[in-house]
Amino acid sequence: MLRLFVGIVFPPELKLRLSLLTTRLPGAKWVDPGNLHLTLRFIGEVGESQAADIDDALCRLKARRFTLQLAGAGVFGNDRPRNLWIGVERQPELSALRDKIEHALVRTGLPPEPRKFSPHVTLARLQNAPREAVAAFLAAQSGFRAEPLAVEQFSLIASFPTKAGSVYEDQADYKLAG
User: Fold this and answer.
1) Which CATH number does the domain housing residue 7 bear?
2) Treating both helix axes as pointing N-terminal to C-terminal, what angle do 48-59 and 92-107 enclose, rounded to 10 degrees?
3) Could you tell me if 74 and 120 are in contact, meaning their C-beta atoms sit under 8 angstroms apart?
4) Domain range spanning residue 20?
5) DSSP secondary structure letter of residue 35
6) Domains in the chain: how many in total?
7) In 2, 59, 108, 149, which residue has its Cα 20 to 30 A from 138's Cα atom?
8) Of all helices (H) and strands (E), which one includes residue 172?
9) How far apart are CA 96 and CA 148, in angstroms?
10) Closest alpha carbon to 54 in 68, 40, 36
11) What CA–CA distances, in Å, run from 28 to 24, 50, 87, 102?
């Protein structure tokens, strides 16, 4: 079984820039900089045969290149903050790519994704983080804005759990049209 997701992998310079946002925040488990990415669709555990069907469906997908803009910071779980993230500005091309991926995956037999697509980059998972400290982090990063990122491909990625955290491994890359 493989635990898969579809995402946009960031170049090393962007991963470095995002990793520099980490700070002393009680209750924060920061994402390893090498794992920073934008998830387009979480798939979960599938067998080798279904993984091959997923790869085939994604190979046939046609979408155009676009530019992605990371900006701002936020948190999921306002009452009990659980995830700290950097935002992704909404763009029609990003939504169109995500919708095409969703349709392709559903055609392979996967159930539809029940959650609304909320593009973000998870920086940290929070457990009992003091609200004041989270609010201070969000205030400090409210003006965050990365250099625009040219998205020329997306990837099928496997996640392998380890004691130190998950390790991500690209399974396939899919080029976008020019």
Assistant:
1) 3.90.1140.10
2) 140
3) yes
4) 2-175
5) G
6) 1
7) 149
8) strand 167-175
9) 18
10) 40
11) 8, 35, 18, 31
Torsion angle defined by CA atoms of residues 39, 44, 47 and 51, in that order, rounded to the nearest 10 degrees: -20
Rounded CA gap, 107 and 49, in Å? Answer: 14
Give the count of beta carbons closer than 10 Å to the beta carbon of residue 151: 21
Look at residue 178 in the predicted model and tell me its pLDDT: 83
Tokens of 13: 């310079």
Tell the residue number behind the tokens 């020329």, with chain if given. Answer: 152
Query: Which residue is listed with tokens 């946002």?
Result: 21
What is the residue type of 69?
Q
Query: Residue 105, exposed/middle/buried by CB under 10 A (0-12, 13-18, 19+)?
Result: buried
End-to-end CA distance of the chain: 34
Residue 165 has pLDDT above 90, yes or no: no
DSSP reduced 3-state for 144: coil
How confident is residue 163, by pLDDT bands cut at 50, 70 and 90?
A: confident
**What is the pLDDT averaged over residues 25-30?**
95
CB 6 within 8 A of CB 90: no
> Could you say which DSSP state residue 115 is in?
S
pLDDT at residue 35 tops 80: yes
| Amino acid in position 144 | F
Please write the tens of the pLDDT for every residue from 76-117. Answer: 997 899 999 999 999 999 999 999 999 999 999 999 999 999
